[in-house]
């Protein structure tokens, strides 16, 4: 079947079987191999992509379910040679070892920080509970998310100051 969706900001159109997984279409047909397959059963989060802004396991999603949607993969975060601040934070905090889980963690973090720019540690851990890492022990990932949150918050433009109310003309 013919499927059209927006992928990392660009319209794509592709032929795929009705039972094709989005994960396979991304990796094999569209050659975006940053999205990984771990368990293939919705348990590890390695295959996380954003579908209309929400993290989903692309191993469980059929490609036709993405028709008409906005899909973001890890390849969509960096701007040219510039890593996204979340990617930089993961590197700086040593939250990347084998890296297999990292795209999924970063996209889940991206989604979290868009919805909640100042998450508590508990909120971070809840948001990332669908993502498994065999290497890091999670404390470095937590530190990376905290660092990314702080940096993104510092980049936000200051909220506009309220305009002083016009003075009420005195009653004559
Ligand atoms: Fe999709 Fe593990 S590969 S959740
Ligand atoms: Fe290896 Fe997470 S860095 S699985």
Sheet with most strands? 5 strands, mixed
Estimate nothing, just give the exact number of structural domains: 2
Rough shape? globular
Find the CATH topology of the largest domain. Ubiquitin-like (UB roll)
Q: Roughly what is the average pLDDT, rounded to an integer?
A: 94
Q: What is the C-alpha radius of gyration, as a whole number of Å?
A: 20 Å
List the helices and strands and how they pair.
Blueprint: E1 2-7, E2 10-15, H1 22-29, E3 48-51, E4 54-57, E5 70-72, H2 85-92, H3 102-115, H4 121-127, H5 139-155
Parallel strand pairs: 1-5
Antiparallel strand pairs: 1-2, 3-4, 3-5
Helix pairs in contact: 2-5
Bound molecules: FE2/S2 (inorganic) cluster (FES) (2 copies).
Any overview of this molecule?
- This protein folds into 2 domains: 2-76, Ubiquitin-like (UB roll), CATH 3.10.20.30; 85-155, DNA polymerase, domain 1, CATH 1.10.150.
- The mean pLDDT is 94.
- It starts with a strand and ends in a 17-residue tail after the last helix.
- It has 172 residues and is α+β, with helices and mostly antiparallel strands.
- Helices cover 31% and strands 13% of the residues.
- The site of one FE2/S2 (inorganic) cluster has 12 residues, from loops.
């Amino acid at each position: 079947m013919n499927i059209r969706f927006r992928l990392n900001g660009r319209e794509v159109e592709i032929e795929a079987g009705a039972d094709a997984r989005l994960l396979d279409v991304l990796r094999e047909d569209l050659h975006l191999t940053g999205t990984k397959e771990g368990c293939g059963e919705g348990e590890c989060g390695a295959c996380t992509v954003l579908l209309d802004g929400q993290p989903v396991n692309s191993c469980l999603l059929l490609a036709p379910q993405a028709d008409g949607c906005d899909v973001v993969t890890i390849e969509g975060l960096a701007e040219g040679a510039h890593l996204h601040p979340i990617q930089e934070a993961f590197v700086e905090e040593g939250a990347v070892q084998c890296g297999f889980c990292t795209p999924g963690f970063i996209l889940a973090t991206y989604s979290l920080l868009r919805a909640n720019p100042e998450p508590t540690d508990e909120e971070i851990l809840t948001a990332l509970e669908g993502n498994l890492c065999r290497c890091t022990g999670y404390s470095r990932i937590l530190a990376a998310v905290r660092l990314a949150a702080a940096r993104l918050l510092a980049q936000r433009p200051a909220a506009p100051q309220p305009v002083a109310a016009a003075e009420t003309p005195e009653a004559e």
